[in-house]
């Protein structure tokens, strides 16, 4: 006769948190072992790819792990990927450059207007 699994269920419903795995004990008895949910990698906030260098854990486990497992030594270390950080830096630089160019052009047009007024007098 086939051996049966002895269930010790948390609840009688087939939910994500109530999955089991059949395990044979050293005594030869089949037991149901509750399987924990798989951990997903933290994702980049901008592009959504998994962050390399950051540990894949369930949310509560991050509290018991050291900071070196949760971050990368870079700006926006544990929340943005390297490409997005590069993109942000370049964008900020270009915006600042654009502001400077705009200011210079404005000064040149004002100088040209003053020169016209002087030449008319």
Automatic annotation (TrEMBL):
GO MF entry, a single one: structural constituent of ribosome
Pfam family, one: Ribosomal_L34e
Keyword Ribosomal protein in record: yes
InterPro entries: Ribosomal_eL34 (IPR008195), Ribosomal_eL34_C_sf (IPR038562), Ribosomal_eL34_CS (IPR018065)
Keywords: Ribonucleoprotein, Ribosomal protein
Cellular component GO terms held in the UniProt record: ribonucleoprotein complex; ribosome
Transmembrane segments: none
Name this polypeptide is given: Ribosomal protein L34e
Gene of this entry: NDAI0E04740
């Amino acid at each position: 006769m086939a051996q049966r699994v002895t269930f010790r269920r948390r609840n009688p419903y087939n939910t994500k948190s109530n999955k089991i795995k059949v395990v044979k004990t050293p005594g030869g008895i089949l037991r149901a072992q509750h399987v924990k949910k798989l951990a997903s990698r933290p994702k980049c906030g901008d592009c959504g790819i998994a962050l390399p260098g950051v540990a894949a854990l369930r949310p509560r486990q991050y509290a018991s792990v050291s900071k070196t497992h949760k971050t990368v030594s870079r700006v926006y270390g544990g929340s943005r990927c390297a490409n997005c950080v590069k993109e942000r830096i370049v964008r900020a630089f270009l915006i600042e450059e654009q502001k400077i160019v705009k200011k210079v052009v404005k000064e040149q047009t004002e100088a040209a207007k003053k020169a016209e007024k002087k030449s008319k007098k």
